[in-house]
Recover the amino acids of this structure.
């Protein structure tokens, strides 16, 4: 299997878009502040935009698509042709690395989106204890963005390494097999020619 520039370009573009969405989600985290109601009886939390949740879920979906494309192209390392050559270890390493970073990124994106969507409602009668508005902790989407970038690097390296290892092994096997068949054919032909020459010499002597 050769390296497809189209697959590399698609994976890189999707992952970069997911990275940008994760960065946008971090910058657009929902913020809340405690405000009294119009009758000054209850305090409640007023929140800003929920755009961060939409950004986070979009990044989650894009990263999932990217990982699916890479593993479909390589048959997830488990169902394709066996790898050969010295790059097998490195291919397995970047395969595991890409999956670990992918799972961490997805977990951060999903947890961050869910937490950002959670809003604290009415909590107490005015004049009681102070309340805090539940908000997403700073840095969750930033960590997701970092893991997304690492996942992109791991996926590209895995696809590249897998393609090189797989192609090299298959071509080597094909060339060795073709050379062996050619050699065998030439040997058989030489034997036939030698038998014809020997038979001709025997007939000449008898004559």
């Amino acid at each position: 299997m050769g390296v497809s520039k189209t697959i590399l370009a698609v994976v890189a573009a999707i992952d970069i878009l997911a990275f940008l969405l994760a960065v946008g989600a971090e910058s657009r985290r929902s913020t809340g502040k405690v405000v009294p109601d119009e009758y000054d009886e209850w305090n409640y939390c007023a929140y800003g935009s929920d755009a961060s949740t939409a950004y986070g879920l979009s990044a989650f979906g894009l990263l999932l698509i990217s990982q699916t494309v890479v593993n479909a192209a390589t048959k997830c390392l488990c169902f394709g042709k066996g790898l050969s050559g010295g790059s097998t270890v490195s291919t397995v390493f970047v395969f595991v690395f890409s999956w670990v970073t992918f799972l961490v990124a997805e977990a951060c994106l999903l947890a961050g989106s869910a937490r950002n969507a959670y809003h604290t409602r009415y909590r107490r009668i005015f004049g009681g204890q102070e309340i805090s508005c539940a908000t997403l902790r700073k840095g969750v989407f930033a960590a997701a963005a970092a893991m997304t970038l690492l996942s992109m690097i791991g996926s590209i390296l895995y696809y590249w390494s897998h393609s090189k290892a797989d192609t090299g092994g298959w071509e080597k096997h094909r060339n060795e097999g073709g050379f062996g068949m050619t050699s065998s054919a030439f040997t058989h032909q030489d034997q036939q020619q030698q038998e014809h020459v020997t038979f001709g010499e025997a007939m000449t002597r008898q004559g």
